[in-house]
Each structure stands twice: as C-alpha cells, then as structure tokens.
Amino acid sequence: MTTDTPTYVLTERADLLGYVPYLLGFHPADSVVVLGLADRRIGVAARADLGQPRTETVRRLSRLLTAAGRGRGAVTSVVLIGYGPDASAADVTRDVANGLDARGYHVREVLLHAGDRYRCLQCDDCTPPGGAPFDLSTTASAAIATYEGLVAQPDRSAVERLVRPVGGLAAIAMTQAVDRAELRLAALLADGANDGGGSAGPRPGPGPGDGAGDGDGAGDGDGDGDGDGDGASPGDGMDDDGGGSARTGGGPGDGGTGKPSLAGEPGPGADTADDRLVRAGTAAVEDALRIAEAGGRLDDDEAAWLTVLLLDLRCRDHAWQRTDTEPWQLALWLDLTRRGEPDLLAPVASLLAWSAWRSGNGVLAGAAVRRALLADPAYTLAHLLNEALDQAVAPGSLGPWPAL
Predict the structure, then answer these.
(1) Where does residue 163 rank: exposed (0-12), middle (13-18), buried (19+ CB within 10 A)?
(2) DSSP code of 153?
(3) pLDDT by residue (tens digit) across 285-327?
(4) Could you give all domains of the chain from N- to C-terminal order, each with its CATH number?
(5) What whole-number distance in Å separates Cα of residue 362 and Cα of residue 367?
(6) C-beta separation of 101 from 62 below 8 A
(7) What's this model's pTM, rounded to 2 decimal places?
C-alpha cells in the first residue's frame, strides 16, 4: 500500500517491524515485504508470497516501487523483511534483496521475522545468533498505529471475510426488499406517484426475518498490501461501465447505465421519468449519508432502494462525489457491500473500494474491487480502481472533491 499518514520517527528495528502489519493492514506470514523509502520516509509497503517465482517477485516489486515514486520523491532505498520459520524464507528474502539491489535500489536492511524473534540477514553480529526477541504489543509503533485508528487483521484471508455477503434470513430479507424497491421504481417511472424525495415512510421496527442483523455475523479482516491507490480522476466519463442488471434491464445495449427504456418523448418542461429517477437517487444517497453520519444503519428497504438506484451512473456519481475519507462513509459502503444483491453490487462495492483507498486502506480496497468485478466483470469504475491499485497510486495524489 502507499502511505499518506502522519510522520513518526522509527529508530529501532523492533518499531519498524511493529509498524509493518499496520501498513499492510494485516499480519504477514510466509511473505517477503518491501518498504520503499524516499528521503528516509516510507513511501510504499508491498508484499509477495514466498512461494512465487523469485524473478517475478523482484519484477513486480520493482514496478510498484517505481510507480510509487511518480509525482512524489523517487523511491531510492528499500528495507526487506522476510516472514516465516522455514529456512527458505531467509533465502527468498536475500534473493529479492539482491535482485532489487541489481536494479539500482539501495538495500538498507534485510531482516527475517519468525515467531517472537527477528534477525539481520546482512551480517552475523548485529543480532544475537538465535535472533533478537520481539513482542509487537510492546512496541511504540504499535501504540502509535492504534492511536491513529489503524487496524492490523490476523491474516490476509480475513479481508475476504470482511466483505463476504450476508447469508441466511438476512439475505432472504434483502431479496424481498429489492423486489419491493423495484416495484417502487416502476411506479416512480410510470407516473411519479412516489418521487423518492426521501424515505418511503416511517422506518418499520425489526421483525422476524427483516434483515436487521447480518445473519452470518460481521466479518473481520483486512488484506494485502500489494499496492494501492486510484489514479482515476473521478468525474463524468463513466458512461461505458457496461454494468447493467437483469433486474432493471441495464446492460451493454444501453451503455450499462441501468436506466429503463422510456416510451415516447416528453413535452417541453415536463417532469420526465428520467428527472424523477435522478431526483430519487440523489435523495436516497443524501438520506443514506445522513443516517450513516448519525451512527445509524439503513434498514432493508432503505438499503434495497439505494442499491437499485445506484445502477444509474448519475446517481452513482453523486454518491461518489459525496464519499471521501470519513470512517462512517466506509462503514456505510462496507455494510451495503455485504448486504447487496449480487446483480446490484458493482456500484456499491466500487464505492467501498474508493472510500477504502482514499482512507489509505488499499487492502480493503482490493477486496472490494474483487467483489465488484465478480458482480460485473465489465464495470469500468472497478477496473479503474483496480489498475490504480496495481500501480500503487497514492491516495493523496488526488485532492478532495469540490464542495457541492
């Protein structure tokens, strides 16, 4: 992941090791991690599996280091850390360090972390023969990271659990709510009986099977630091998403906007179905953000209505423009990614990816992109975010959205 966090001085190897899980978002295992330094400042952290071909690992990490230095100070030196008790972990870490050195990077440190000890792989006398003791919980860097609200999940697979869909009664309740939302949308487009300018009515109290809970429990996790970022300049230009839905008739034939076909041409000044759709989408986004900012959670009907409307790119883009780095925004899109119906998921998961990336959480952004592309392999916003993650574009490379 790229790093746009407050500056702290790490003077001890133990503090450096203690900070790595928070940079990645999880505790690495059987991995080699590279920290790219620009003027002694950590600019990028990336990870690769020990089992990958070593030449490919060097090539990929070098590409990420180069990309991370674009538009900022160039990455000129690196720290390598191998993770794993197997003797091959030391060999792979040394080989990757030598490969990066051959590509012109100054290798400052090469360490091996195994269990509760670490040792230097560059010399025999700077750490004890059996390694130096290490306890992450006692490091100043772990305290700093915790204070900053950073979280290190147990392992990489935990990030996938974080974004996995709900099941059981919660999933059934959402399917039923989406059916109701589509009927509501059809009525809106037909005659504007409900223009969507707010909630459909009083929020019902929870009842059996209303999906008030997650059904399978909240997932935990974070993920991998194999680059992070966005590089896409948000704005218009998204009309080739191709991300339609069988539910609303969107698809490649209509540019993936998810907008229903309209029969006949409206007269001048008429309140068209298209106008009502955009107005309803804008109101639904604003309602959702208001509820989330107050610490609330959308009920099933509110969540279903929003996810149906977000298939329209103009509604999606309004939500995109209103989403940045606030934790409650990330929580909103994470919740909807878990609860969303599969054929409505691409916009919501892409918004989660954007929010996670802007917050510096590239590992969660990557997991969200994977969910979006699983739902719709042609969804352009997800592809843009995925490409930017691969290129290690820093979240700070894009300024905040202009005030609306």
Answers:
(1) buried
(2) B
(3) 999 999 999 999 999 999 999 999 999 999 999 999 999 989 9
(4) 13-152 (3.40.140), 160-397 (no CATH)
(5) 9
(6) no
(7) 0.70
